[in-house]
Amino acid sequence: MASIKRPMFEAHVLEGLCRTIGDTSDGLTGTEIGQILLNSNIPDIDPQNTKWRRLFSAFADWQNKNQCSNHILRFVQDALQPVRYIGKEEIFHNRRLEVNKRLAFIGTEFTEQGKFRLVEKATTIAEAEQRASRLKHKLENRNVHAAVFEYCKAELLVENYFHSVFEATKSIADRLRTMTGLYADGNALAETAFSTSNPLVKINHLKTDTDRSEHLGLCNLIKGMFGLIRNSTAHEPKIKFEITEDEALDILNTIFYIHKRLDKAI
């Protein structure tokens, strides 16, 4: 990156970057900002101002004089070095993802390894949001089943928790229909597929009471997901059925578990 003159940030994008880095609640401290500006050879021309305005003044002044963003990127790299965030991994990921939403507009991304890489330049806010989805990152870290991403990719990329879980739950029904050739839906689909007298899907050999309990347990878990998510979200407007990020992660992990059990079905 150092050998290439990187594009300048537009003023509104640069402001967003400064607001992220200098956030009042979890951004860099004033002392850290001063030290990293010094390390990056960017004059600290407005040290008495608020943190983000101080950064904006320094970045805009340097960028206008040099017609590139290289030293600003050097600042970002120093500010987001992973070693600074030992014991604060969640803050690192959140800050990196927010910064990447802004870097996307100059065709750059900051990796978890503390390096920059070139990416296709974003032209819209939606593109920048998609690349830096926090929910998608957390799910990838948990090695969530590919079927979850297949059915709710667009919703995940814009962090739409309501529709993410709704679409992911559909993946279970579609998976069962593919495995069994049935055309049913909801509880009827699960009960027919997991019938103990004529099962179309078996997660074990159904030879013991324990086997049958496990078999019916998965059936009931699937029916529970249909009742909790598909029926509720299908009949309630989004504003009345709010799902937080943590709730979405818990639900998607349950769907992930169901798919893993279906992977091993007889």
- End-to-end Cα distance: 52 Å
Q: Classify the oligomer.
A: single chain
Strand coverage percent: under 5%
What strand order characterises the main sheet?
1-2
- Please give the domain count: 2
Along the chain, the helix and strand elements come as HHHHHEEHHHHHHH
Query: What structural category do the secondary elements indicate?
Result: mainly alpha
Largest sheet: 2 strands, antiparallel
- Treating each run of at least 4 consecutive H or I residues as one helix, how many helices? 12
Radius of gyration: 24 Å
Low-confidence stretches: 233-240
The average pLDDT is 86
Q: What's the overall geometry?
A: elongated
**Number of E-type strands:** 2
Helix content: 55-70%
Pfam families: Hypoth_Ymh (PF09509)
Organism: Chryseobacterium flavum
InterPro entries: CHP02391 (IPR012654)
Keywords: Coiled coil
Give the SSE map:
Blueprint: H1 11-21, H2 30-39, H3 51-66, H4 70-79, H5 89-103, E1 108-110, E2 116-118, H6 125-131, H7 134-141, H8 146-157, H9 161-180, H10 186-193, H11 209-235, H12 245-263
Antiparallel strand pairs: 1-2
Helix pairs in contact: 1-3, 1-5, 5-6, 8-9, 9-10, 9-11, 9-12, 10-11, 11-12
